[in-house]
């Protein structure tokens, strides 16, 4: 969760451009022909709905006139026609909603896949943590769904309004031209009034509500994920207070939403109730004088309502459109952020200087200068060294001096600074953080991640567990196929040994360890580093444990302020 720098949305040309930017790729993708076919079918069904609506309107006027004239034959003939129209119309209406929702679902699947691909491309998900984009999880899981469904919903409403306007205008024009002129003026005034009074205010409030609801959900998830340390610290009161503050912000904003929705509802209901009586008042004299049948008056009222609904579609759906506008802006901001990350993987200075990474057989750093991502603090200056396979490098120094940052640079997560990193490509270099990552899945998945499709026998996997002193782990939890929340059922020490087994199984040439054995006793730590030597895996370690110096050839000491000293491990004296 992060504070956002996004602009408050509104109904304007920019909103339309953002909508097109998000929507266009699907309709030009490999799925374009099935999608366009379903859209064409949807338009045909919409035309069918309008045609049936006109027929219903005509027959309603017909049997009403028959009742007023007490014409039995005319009445029953109209009822039979109405029934036949109804039987034909029902499948059209049902099929319309099925096709619309199916198309929306397929669009959501494609758009979700597209955003996920961009989210994981060049580690954008990692770098977005420092951007102004809040809650990317909500934007992928919820905003995309809302966008696809509501895009079709409002598009069909808009198209349907145009079709209704054309179809019913001809009907109403033959009955009362005065009603048509009145309609145009009434619709223009009500639409302008709604946009001017409620527009920017409601859209902005709904935009902020989406943010604050997402922040509240994020805070709840955070409590669930950190339940044990919160319990150890007796932090319940503090966490509840923090959650209440986040919820209070959402509550206060929604109170404003409700107040403006109340005002909007006052106008909308007054507007809708007036449309019931106004057409009758306008044509009352013609009916009372006998110039117009009662049924024709009913038909005129129905056509009037249909045309007015078409002309004032924004007024009727303003609340939903305001939420849709907010969602479009959030999704567009997310898309733009992903585009920026793809174009430039990490922060660089205005003059274009950044750390460059090239692939080679050995690990080497050439005049490496490392800055924090905001470029405000110098962590490491002009470091040059080479670590050949089998040598090993131990990085030591006080907390906050850039030890972990240097590993992030080597791993390719940071490039803020200058200089060059030469490193092996792909699986020849792995990184183990202090806090192990255990993905969702079974125990077998924990050992083979991220290449979980590898075909490795259970016997071999059990042997690797034994190598890291976890010989009974699989047996304890029901075998390698057991699926549990491993980060909760295992201690931190067990987690560190489990991911170490994963690294041994992968057999990289270089292994970056950021205090990856911090929770282990000396015996287990010695055993794991011994396995690295057996497999010819070269460790690049950050640690505060003196006992592992002997497993490295070099010791890099970082005292702070960007300075550094390189020592041979043999004879290195730990501490001041």
Automatic annotation (TrEMBL):
Q: Which Gene3D superfamilies match?
A: ABC transporter type 1, transmembrane domain (1.20.1560.10), P-loop containing nucleotide triphosphate hydrolases (3.40.50.300)
Reply yes or no: does the keyword Coiled coil apply. Answer: no
Taxonomy, top ranks, is:
Bacteria, Pseudomonadati, Pseudomonadota, Betaproteobacteria, Burkholderiales
Topology of the protein relative to the lipid bilayer:
Multi-pass membrane protein
Give the organism, scientific name.
Answer: Albidiferax ferrireducens (strain ATCC BAA-621 / DSM 15236 / T118) (Rhodoferax ferrireducens)
Q: What is this protein called?
A: ABC transporter related
Where is this chain's protein located in or outside the cell? Answer: Cell membrane
Q: Which GO terms describe its cellular component?
A: plasma membrane
Protein keywords = ATP-binding, Cell membrane, Membrane, Nucleotide-binding, Transmembrane, Transmembrane helix, Transport
């Amino acid at each position: 969760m992060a504070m956002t720098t996004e602009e408050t949305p509104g109904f304007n040309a920019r909103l339309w451009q953002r909508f097109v930017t998000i929507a266009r790729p699907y309709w030009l993708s490999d799925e374009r022909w099935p999608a366009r076919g379903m859209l064409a079918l949807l338009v045909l069904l919409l035309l069918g709905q309008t045609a049936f609506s006109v027929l219903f309107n005509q027959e309603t006027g017909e049997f009403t006139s028959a009742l007023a004239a007490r014409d039995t034959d005319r009445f029953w003939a109209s009822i039979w026609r109405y029934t036949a129209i109804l039987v034909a119309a029902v499948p059209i209406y049902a099929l319309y909603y099925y096709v619309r929702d199916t198309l929306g679902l397929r669009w959501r699947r494609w758009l979700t896949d597209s955003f996920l691909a961009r989210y994981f491309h060049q580690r954008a998900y990692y770098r977005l943590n420092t951007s102004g984009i809040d809650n990317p999880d909500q934007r992928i899981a919820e905003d995309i769904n809302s966008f696809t469904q509501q895009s079709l919903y409002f598009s069909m409403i808009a198209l349907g309004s145009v079709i209704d306007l054309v179809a019913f205008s001809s009907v109403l024009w033959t009955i009362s031209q005065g009603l048509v002129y009145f309609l145009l003026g009434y619709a223009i005034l009500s639409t302008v009034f709604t946009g001017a009074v409620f527009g920017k205010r409601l859209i902005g409030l709904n935009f902020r509500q989406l943010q604050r609801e997402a922040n509240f959900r994020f805070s709840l998830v955070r409590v669930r994920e950190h339940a044990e340390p919160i319990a150890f610290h007796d932090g319940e009161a503090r966490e509840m207070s923090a959650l209440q503050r986040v919820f209070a912000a959402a509550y206060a904003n929604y109170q404003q939403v409700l107040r403006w929705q109340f005002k909007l509802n006052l106008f909308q209901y007054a507007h809708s109730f007036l449309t019931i009586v106004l057409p009758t008042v306008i044509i009352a004299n013609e009916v009372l004088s006998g110039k117009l049948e009662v049924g024709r008056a009913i038909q005129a009222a129905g056509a009037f309502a249909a045309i007015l609904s078409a002309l004032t579609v924004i007024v009727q759906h303003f609340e939903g459109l305001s939420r849709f506008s907010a969602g479009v802006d959030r999704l567009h901001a997310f898309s733009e952020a992903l585009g920026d990350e793809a174009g430039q993987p990490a922060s660089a200075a205005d003059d274009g200087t950044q750390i460059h990474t090239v692939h080679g057989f050995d690990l080497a750093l050439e005049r490496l200068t490392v800055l924090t991502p905001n470029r405000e603090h110098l962590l490491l200056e002009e470091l040059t060294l080479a670590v050949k396979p089998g040598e090993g490098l131990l990085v030591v120094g006080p907390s906050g001096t850039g030890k972990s940052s240097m590993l992030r640079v080597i791993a390719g997560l940071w490039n803020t600074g200058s200089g060059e990193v030469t490193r092996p490509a792909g699986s020849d270099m792995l990184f183990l953080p202090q806090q192990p990552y255990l993905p969702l899945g079974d125990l077998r998945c924990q050992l083979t991640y991220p290449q979980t499709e590898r075909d490795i026998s259970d016997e071999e996997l059990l042997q690797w567990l034994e190598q890291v002193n976890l010989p009974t782990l699989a047996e304890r939890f029901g075998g390698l196929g057991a699926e549990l929340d491993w980060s909760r059922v295992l201690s931190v020490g067990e987690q560190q040994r489990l991911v170490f087994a994963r690294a041994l199984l992968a057999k990289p040439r270089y292994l970056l360890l950021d205090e990856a054995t911090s929770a282990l006793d000396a015996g287990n730590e010695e055993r794991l580093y011994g396995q690295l030597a057996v497999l010819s895996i070269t460790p690049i370690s950050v640690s505060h444990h003196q006992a592992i110096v002997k497993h490295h050839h070099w010791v890099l000491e970082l005292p702070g302020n960007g300075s550094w000293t390189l020592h041979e491990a043999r004879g290195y004296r730990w501490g001041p």
